[in-house]
Specification:
- Helix content is 31%, strand content 31%.
- It is α+β, with helices and mostly antiparallel strands and 578 residues long.
- Strands 1, 15, 16, 17, 19 and 20 form a 6-stranded mixed β-sheet that branches. Strands 2, 3, 4, 6 and 7 form a 5-stranded antiparallel β-sheet that branches.
- The N and C termini lie far apart (107 Å).
- Keywords: Membrane, Transmembrane, Transmembrane helix.
Length: 578
């Protein structure tokens, strides 16, 4: 019986660890089930041997028939005559089985306590609301115009995740038979060589594809520009070497990324948020967050990361402070969202969050979004609204996706939902859908920018919506035309929403040195340069009916918003000699 129990113990333990990958540390409950199961088994064996009535009861059941065949010696009739010679040995055996039962009781107590009792005593929000609120760290109130620099138009994100996936699927479909072997994994937004891209691994479609390509893995990954829907790449080789992803989320056995990381020594700390990223040389990696529970058994918080080479499996461990520069995020969205929510909920304690809710704040949506600043930092973003208020925000919060440094900006106005409805209202005859609005600094004006898509999810237009007044909307076929329409709407309101200290009017006079006409979205735009000035000025007939008549050598006067960019949209145009 003993050899069988040992083998069964090893097999069950291996299968449990192989499938469930429990974290063997205080503050995690997933190892409790195994402890409880073996506690019950030890108690059962002890009771079966020591308690005659229990043995007789079991013998009459269906389980008893099975146990009789497996362990016939346990169900043998006990002699009524005491064997003096074996009495001492029997006493020692009974002591061993009593000890086995005692160990079983201890395992049960430990397992049940860790699963049910300790999580309540050490993690209940009613008792630890201040600890939950403090997980986000110090939230500094800051100024929008001083912290958030005006964004370069080339860095504005107009391709959302839905559109990016459709573009990625299209390029995969252009390669014969590739779609039958692989599928597109989760898209990760990141900055690659100073440009924003959605990057996704090509993963095994199923176990048969994995068996076929077991030795090397699936081939390649896709990159879709977040700023230009025409910029889509299928990357299957880098510097002349083919790219194969052996370790991935669709692998099996030890090619399955979480299992590979777990059995390489990371069994006593939480692992989460398996993000696919590439470095600036386009080498593929997995960035895996390491976390601990900071409030008893809850309050998950990132403490570092593991970087896994998707091709070779090489692993390196990093703290948050020594991450490579190309890593964009290590703070999982779900953890940061929960911490932002707790920061707003428990501002005046637990009971206030349940009943009065005075002063409580909450995120405007159910998710966070990554935005990229001009300072090369990456942030989780969400609008913030007061509890009970719908359709409006009292500000927004930015959390650094690496360090978790949080800043809170009080900018009252429309929330993201209101901005989407306002943008869709401008093109309601076309039935376009607005993507998620992202907040930007456009010439000192807090502005939502949202892509407008058709029923197929393809990008058709770009909308600009003022945060302070969501009735001020500009829509264009592209970024440039949308911005010009937005600036004209702002100008028509007397520039009352443009802070003068952030967006000064620029007046110039000179001769035209170059001029060109471009048609976008059915509207003509005129690009021209002035002698002695390297900047490009853009205008349309809506600005002045004289613009279509301009030619090289004409003397003109223009007024533009000085956004410090190389391309400026003009608000006034005057031909001096015609």
């Amino acid at each position: 019986m003993l050899p069988f129990l040992i083998i069964a113990f090893l097999v069950v333990n291996f299968l449990y660890f192989f499938m469930e990958m429990p974290v063997l540390a205080f503050g995690f409950t997933d190892w409790s089930n195994l402890v409880i199961a073996w506690g019950i088994l030890f108690l059962f064996i002890s009771a079966l041997i020591l308690l005659n009535k229990f043995r007789l009861f079991i013998a009459k059941t269906a389980w008893g028939e099975v146990l009789k065949k497996l362990f016939p010696q346990l169900f043998q009739e006990r002699p009524h005559v005491v064997d003096i010679a074996n009495y001492q040995n029997q006493g020692q055996n009974y002591k061993r089985y009593r000890m086995l039962g005692f160990v079983g009781i201890i395992l049960l107590v430990v397992g049940v306590s860790n699963l049910l009792i300790l999580p309540i005593l050490t993690s209940a929000p009613m008792l630890y609301s201040s600890a939950y609120r403090g997980l986000l760290g110090e939230v500094k109130e800051s100024s929008f115009t001083s912290d958030i620099e005006p964004i370069n138009l080339s860095q504005i994100r107009i391709v959302d995740e839905e559109t990016a996936r459709k573009l990625a699927e299209k390029i995969i479909g252009e390669v014969p038979a590739l779609g039958s072997e692989v599928q597109i994994g989760e898209l990760s937004l990141q900055k690659v060589r100073e440009k924003l891209y959605y990057v996704a691994p090509l993963e095994h479609r199923g176990i048969f594809q994995w068996l076929t390509n077991y030795t090397r893995g699936s081939k390649g990954f896709v990159m879709v520009s977040a700023t230009n829907p025409q910029d889509v790449h299928l990357v299957q080789s880098v510097n002349g070497k083919e790219v194969y992803l052996k370790y991935q989320m669709k692998g099996f056995f030890f090619d399955y990324l979480p299992r590979y990381v777990y059995f390489n020594g990371f069994f006593n700390i939480g692992i989460s948020d398996f993000s696919f990223e590439v470095d600036d040389d386009l080498n593929p990696y997995w960035v895996v967050t390491l976390y601990k529970n900071k409030v008893g058994y809850h309050g998950s918080d990132a403490v570092g990361a593991v970087i896994v080479n998707a091709q070779t499996g090489q692993i390196s461990r990093h703290t948050i402070d020594d991450l490579p520069r190309w890593v964009d995020r290590v703070q999982p969205e779900s953890y940061v969202y929960k911490q932002v929510k707790d920061w707003g909920d428990y501002i005046n304690g637990f009971w206030n969050s349940v009943f009065a809710k005075m002063g409580t704040l909450k995120p405007t949506g159910n998710e966070l979004h990554l935005i990229y600043g001009n300072d090369d930092s990456v942030y989780w973003y969400t609008g913030i609204t007061s509890s009970g208020k719908d359709g409006s925000s009292v500000g927004f919060i930015l959390i650094n996706s690496r360090t978790k440094e949080a800043k809170w900006y009080k900018v009252s106005g429309a929330d993201e939902g209101g901005a989407k409805k306002s943008a869709e209202g401008q093109v309601q005859e076309k039935s376009y859908r607005a993507g998620y609005p992202i907040l930007y600094n456009i010439g000192g004006v807090p502005t939502y920018i949202a892509p407008l898509k058709d029923k197929e999810g393809l990008l058709k237009a770009v909308s600009f919506i003022s945060v302070e007044n969501y009735n001020l909307v500009g829509v264009g076929a592209d970024i440039e035309s949308g911005l010009r329409a937005y600036q004209q709407v702002l100008a028509s309101k007397g520039n009352q929403f443009i802070p003068s200290q952030e967006n000064k009017a620029l007046k110039l006079q000179g001769k035209i040195s170059r001029v060109s006409q471009v048609v976008k979205g059915g509207e003509s735009y005129f690009y021209f340069m002035i002698e002695g000035d390297n900047r490009i000025f853009v205008g349309s007939s809506n600005t002045s009916p004289k613009i279509p008549l301009v030619k090289v050598g004409d003397l003109i006067s223009v007024t533009a918003n000085d956004t410090k960019e190389n391309t400026l949209s003009i608000t006034e145009f005057k031909g001096e000699n015609y």
